[in-house]
Specification:
The protein is an alpha+beta fold. It has two domains: 136 residues, Immunoglobulins (Immunoglobulin-like, Sandwich); 98 residues, Immunoglobulins (Immunoglobulin-like, Sandwich), CATH 2.60.40. The protein has three helices and 19 strands. It has a five-stranded antiparallel β-sheet with strand order 2-1-4-9-8, with no helix packed on it. The longest helix has 19 residues.
């Protein structure tokens, strides 16, 4: 019986040591996961026309359990769906960074790509490590919040909108913020909202004629026409002193700066006046 127990313990230790010595790949982006040979990983969502990066650490262990600081030399795509393209990571880069681009005409659904970490000329006795990565193609890769949706401004003074982009996809391609339908020239703004993060941006609008305006604030991907959302914004522009004071509380810039406390007080008075006159 003691011999049997010893054999079982020895077997368990052998499996544990073999597992500990297994060559691995530490994927760092767009998700974090340790991958072994012939493993699988789900990366996340990407829209048609967008690109994303697969990042992985070059460090690993060889089959004898020896730690190799720069073991993997290159990350390459060895199998791609039809129409997809990739750029392998530069040689000896750490972390390795491989780019994958989805075609603009890709249909929605799950796709699998084959990726391989390579030890050039097997110098570190690692060979190669292949694994599969699954990606969901969908235009639903971001959410947006815009505030305020009703603004007061003075002629040619900037009215600042707060735009928060929650990038739920895995692409770091830029987004474009633009205002359409205003009687003034407004510049589109290209911004970066990194994957799996919510980032806020200040977007100024300019109107050079008094009146009430309803326009579209549009946020969209710079690389995918399918990824876009529009929000209706109403702006009241006036030359009157009352609107000047209201506009201060909504971001309009008046000068000189030393009078900002006075402007803030005037803004408060404008709200009191509006409350009285509205009944």
């Amino acid at each position: 019986m003691d011999v049997l127990r010893a054999a079982v313990v020895l077997g368990i230790l052998s499996v544990a040591l073999a597992s500990a010595a297994s060559t691995y790949l530490q994927v760092q982006g767009p998700i974090s996961q340790t991958i072994y040979s012939n493993g699988t990983v789900y990366l996340g969502k990407v829209a048609p026309g967008q690109s994303f990066y697969v990042l992985a650490n070059a460090s690993t262990v060889n089959t004898t359990g020896y730690y190799v600081n720069i073991g993997w030399d290159r990350l390459v795509a060895v199998r791609l769906p039809s129409g997809w393209s990739s750029q392998e990571s530069p040689l000896y880069e750490n972390p390795m960074k491989m780019k994958v681009t989805v075609p603009a005409n890709a249909t929605d659904g799950n796709y699998t790509i084959g990726i391989e970490a390579v030890n050039v000329q097997n110098y570190s006795r690692l060979g190669s490590l292949a694994f599969n990565a699954t990606i969901t193609v969908t235009p639903d890769v971001f959410d947006v919040k815009v505030s305020p949706t009703t603004v007061y401004s003075v002629i040619e003074a900037p009215e600042v909108l707060n735009v928060t982009i929650n990038n739920t996809g895995i692409s770091d391609d830029p987004f474009i913020i633009s205002a359409l339908g205003l009687p003034a020239w407004n510049v589109s703004d290209q911004v970066i909202s990194l994957h799996s993060k919510a980032t806020s941006f200040s977007y100024p609008i300019f109107i050079n004629e008094p009146g009430a305006y309803t326009f579209n604030l549009t946020v969209g991907s710079s690389t995918s026409a399918l990824v876009a959302k529009s929000y209706r914004i109403t702006s009241y522009v006036s030359e009157s002193l009352l609107y000047d004071y209201k506009s201060v509380d909504h971001g309009a810039v008046l000068s000189p700066v030393v009078l900002e406390p006075v402007y803030a007080f005037m803004s408060l008075l404008s709200y009191i006046y509006s409350a009285i006159t509205s009944g």
